[in-house]
Sequence to fold (407 residues):
Amino acid sequence: MYLTNGAALAFLLSSVATSGTTAFSTSPHRYAPSLRTVSSIQHASSHGRPAAAFGVPSPSTTSLFAVDIQQREEKELKTTKEPAVVADVDVEKLKAMAQKYRAEAAALEAERAQEVAEAAERAFAKFDQNSDGVITMSELKQGLETQLQTDLSQERVEALMRKFDDSGDGKLQLEEFAGVEKFKVALAEMARDEKKRSSELLAVAQREEEAYNQISEILNDRPPTNTDKALSLLPYLFPLLDSLPYANSLLVNHPDNPAAQLLAAAYFAYQSVPLSGFLAFLSLSFLSGVPRINRLVRYNMLQAMYLDVALFVPGVFALLVGGASQLTGQAIPAELVASTNTALFATTLAAILYSSISSVAGQEPDKIPFVSKIVKDRMPSVEMFKDWLDEQKSSMDDNDKNGNGLK
Fold:
């Protein structure tokens, strides 16, 4: 069947129009042969040839052509949307898998916690011998010794109790029970701390020994030599000369006694020096503080000073009594004054003789009442320094037990 040129062109255009302008605009090159065909038809019309001669399709062929174009367009649109749809499906799938894994992990964690709790209850029951729900100090000690196969000191068990007893009632409840492994770790830490403490104490002891030796070199507490013994007698001349006024009656009554004459000559020589008593006191006070002088000599220096100071007490008392007697107009019997003075001199002389004899024997004369105790308390010594160091060390140990132990 042949169409006229005008009818064929109109049919072709109407067929193309039925496929829609979108398809045409989307792929213009796809329809390029059809446009060329249109041009050929127009050209054929102008030369009087039929359109079929240039391959113009029939109406049925043109309809199939339009259907094919539409199917291609739909396929292209579907292919364009497929990646986004696939991506959405993959994200949802990953979310579902993640949720599943989280649920499985939570279930495993809960199962593990249940196992730990049950294990803690079993371990707690081994320590809680009387099943009263708490672990006492003795139960903790016995349980650890059984589990660890070793003996534990009471101090370490008490330290463990202080560390884990959060309630402070001296007992461990189930929630406070840490388990054997944590007890072992705590005991290991305590052992390390004790070892460290022992090393520190050893270092302190070594420093103390060095200091002790240095003090011993500086502070002469060694046994006195014969020279030291002789020198230790000289300080007692000071209280002896100051006590001679109380022996006036004795010296007057025995003028031919060589000892009395010697004492009188020494006293007058002593008094001839201005401020002799004050200078003697200062000299003894200074020399008694020199650590390199032997201890016996230093001790006698201090004791001689305090004996001399003791002589001031009866002197002041005598002045007060004399003033009172003048005010009252009643004289004190001379015999009473003489006997009192003689007693004071005799007491002083006895103390000096005792100190001299002890010093010659190389012993400290520390038996004079009141005076010797004061002197001994004021005398520095190596032993005193060592005792002080021991007190400091003991104080450090007490502080370490009370404040620095495991809590």
